[in-house]
Design a protein that fits this description.
The model has no long low-confidence stretch (mean pLDDT about 80). Helix 2 crosses helix 9. Helices cover about 75% and strands about 0% of the residues. By secondary structure, the protein is mainly alpha-helical.
Length: about 300
């Protein structure tokens, strides 16, 4: 059974939408980590618990075929990559400015494109490589790893990029037989207990389990972040049901200027002047790919 209907333009639009939602999520998460000083594992646990609670009533109102798990092994592998990626990403936001962390996440398309070609056996024309390399070049301009500002904390979003690439590839593989709704629900259901275990392990020695419950203000922000998480995960799953993984990755770059802008507004994280050149290169690479794909479809 397949739920995949090719529509690259709609898939690109869903990926850009997911990026915008994640930009809001990242800004909110960084505020919770830096200003409210909640540990990363606690933040991840409450966010995904909230997202799961929001998704369950909707899922239970659907026919069972809409959320049946047909390949549990792949779901577990996907959740494993996702939970480790989430933990690294949330932890990085307590130390790394949004613009720098988002630039490092741009390494993910390289892993995805390589995996899409070698594992999923998707065709990878030169224009895809050109667009991805253009986006990565923009990310390197923004990152400037040769500068004194570079720190070992920046390795956390690099690890998250590799793990999320694995999540993306497994999502694409699962869309061949399962609906986006099922992919969203099962990811949330599997992430929640894993995040709970990690949050408990991270508690200080002798701390009561009740210390996992934050104050009302922080809890309200975590609920909001959970809602954004659920919406973004669905948008990603929907995007991969509409277009190839390698094709979609350059559109994931668009979230970088969104993260940069929100970081400046919320925290005053002003990146170097090279940010404008890097962001322009990333956006240009994404729209170049879309135009080339449209021309290819028109002549096919």
């Amino acid at each position: 059974m397949t739920h995949s209907t090719r529509n690259p333009a709609r898939g690109a639009a869903m990926m850009v939408t997911a990026g915008a939602i994640f930009a809001l999520y990242n800004t909110l998460t960084q505020y919770i980590a830096m200003e409210l000083h909640l540990p990363g594992p606690t933040i991840a646990f409450w966010q995904y618990l909230t997202a799961t609670a929001l998704a369950l009533p909707w899922a239970l109102s659907r026919a069972r075929s809409a959320w049946a798990m047909r390949q549990p092994g792949l779901h577990l592998m996907r959740a494993g990559c996702a939970v480790l990626g989430v933990q690294l990403w949330v932890a990085s936001l307590a130390w790394v400015p949004i613009w720098q962390a988002s630039a490092l996440i741009l390494l993910s398309p390289f892993f995805v494109t390589l995996g899409a070609a070698l594992i999923l056996r998707e065709p990878t024309p030169a224009r895809r490589w050109l667009a991805v390399l253009g986006g990565l070049s923009g990310g390197m301009i923004l990152l400037a790893p040769w500068s004194e500002a570079f720190s070992t904390a920046a390795l956390m979003p690099v690890g998250a990029a590799a793990l999320w690439a694995g999540t993306s590839l497994l999502t694409k593989r699962l869309t061949r037989e399962e609906a986006p709704e099922a992919l969203t629900l099962h990811l949330l259901l599997l992430l929640t207990p894993a995040n709970a275990v990690l949050a408990l392990v991270a508690l200080p020695e002798g701390a009561a389990i009740g210390s996992l419950v934050p104050g009302s203000f922080a809890l309200g922000l975590l609920v909001m972040a959970g809602l954004l998480t659920a919406a973004a995960q669905y948008a990603i799953a929907r995007a991969y049901s509409l277009a190839d993984a390698g094709y979609l990755q350059p559109f994931d770059h668009v979230k970088l200027p969104l993260n940069v802008g929100l970081g400046v507004l919320a925290f005053g994280f002003v990146p170097p002047g090279s940010m404008w050149a890097g962001s322009a290169l990333i956006v240009a690479a994404s729209f170049y790919l879309l135009e080339q794909e449209r021309r290819g479809a028109a002549t096919a």
